Each structure stands twice: as structure tokens, then as C-alpha cells.
């Protein structure tokens, strides 16, 4: 009996070894270790673009098409950020509102950068979480505040900027009649006016009137002109016989009326004495630049060019006050 024990032990060893071998041979074989990883996995860490803790599409987040322009993306971000800012959503949980707002900021950071946008379009992800950042901003809040500061700064500047002036002439606008009757007559012929009322039109040369009607068909203007206190006349003029009083300000280039007599009449109407009539008459037909305009008495200080600059010789200029009625746009 004892002599058979070694044999039994040997059989048991063989049996256990066989069972162990069978167990090993029946384990499922995996080829994962032998399967090569895609090349992109070696280039980009497997981190998808995220916002608020979940994968999102930046195009869907901002509500723009994949071919959206930079301007469209910027406008979409502005509109979304305005509506999603936590301060605009007091009914939402603060963390939820912040997550929604941050997601909009993340989407904008991707799409505003040509490099990041191309990377997302190619791989569906952008870099690592650490590399996304906010373009130099400490937080999404700071990025939003800076964006809105610039946006509202531009809006405020646009609001403060005066609207463009209305085109001249229009009803109820003031209009200067050119001071030289010959200029008024020539404009009348060019406009197709008959000679019937030339004398009346010449009577009001150099006066300030108010537009009562405009006929765009023949570019004519009906002007209400004061004849005397309590009396006014309505006369049709060609638009080229009139000019816009709003133009008279510092830097405005003018031509002094070529008719010295008309200039004298305009000076009397403006309350200017005869003291310097001779000097003003010497400037008739010359060009100048308005330095100062006084709309209270309808006068302007003008720097008149007597002789233009030639080679090294400087221009000769002189200063003189004129009635605005004796000036015309150069």
C-alpha cells in the first residue's frame, strides 16, 4: 500500500498540470496588444472639444453653418453671449447659467481662430483641455466683458456720432442766392428758365432765403425771400444759383464775388461799414479760406490768396471780413 503512494502522487501532479493547461488554453485570445493605434492618436491627445463637461459642436452652439464667415460668427457670439450671460438669466441656477455661457465662449474661441477651426473641422476636436484657453483671458467672464466693452464702446461712438447732413436743397432749408447776378443768369439759362423773371432773380442776388419747394425734374427750387419786414416773395431759381449755408465754417474754400457793387450791397445788408470797401473790392474774384464764421451777423473772416506760391516764393495772403452773401463755394 505504501509503495503505491508515489505513483498516486505522480498521477495527481499530471492531472493538476493537465487541468491548468486546459484552463490556459481555453482563455479568450486578445489581439488588442498587437493592433496598431491610428496615426492621429499619436498626434493629438484623445481629448474632444468640450464645454460644460460634455462634447458639443461649436457650430451648433453658436447656431451658424459650417461655412459661416468671420463676421457671422462674431455676430452669433455677440447675440448668444448677451442672451446667455448669467446676469441675464436670474431664474437659472448660477452654475447652469455659467456653464451655458462658458460653452458659448468655448465655441467662439474655436471658430474665431482659423487654426483651431481648421483643426476642429479635420479631427472633430481641438488640442488638449489645457491648450484651449481663452486667448489670453483669465476666464470666460473676462473675455465676455472685454468683448462687450469694445462692442458697446463702438455702439456708443456710433450713437454720439452726429447723423449725416441732409442733402441740399430740401424744403425748410435755408439757401444763399449767389451774389453775382451774372452767375444767377447763366445758371437760369443752363436750367432752361426763360428770361421773363431774370430781373426779379437778380434783385435778390446775395440774399438768404428759405426753400419752400424742390422740383427734381428740372433741378429748380422755389425760394421764399424776405423783401421787407412782413413782406416776402416766392421766386423759382435753378439749384446751381444757390448754395448751402451749412458749408460756411473754418477751412471752407470760397471765391469772393466778382461783382464789386454786389459785394458792397451785401456788406451794407450785413451791417459792415464802408471803411474797407476798397480793400474788399480788390479781392473780387479771388479764392480764399474761411478762418472764422459769425452766423449772428452773417459775416466771415477770410484769408484771401493774392498771389499763389511760385517755386521758392511763398504765397501772398491777406485777411479781411466779408459778408457771407459775397462769398461762393470755390
TrEMBL record:
- Which keywords does the record carry? Signal
Any single Gene Ontology cellular-component annotation? nucleus
| UniProt entry tagged with the keyword Signal | yes
Signal peptide positions are 1-21
SUPFAM superfamilies noted in UniProt: Chaperone J-domain (SSF46565)
Residue span(s) of domain J = 57-124
Q: What is this protein called?
A: J domain-containing protein
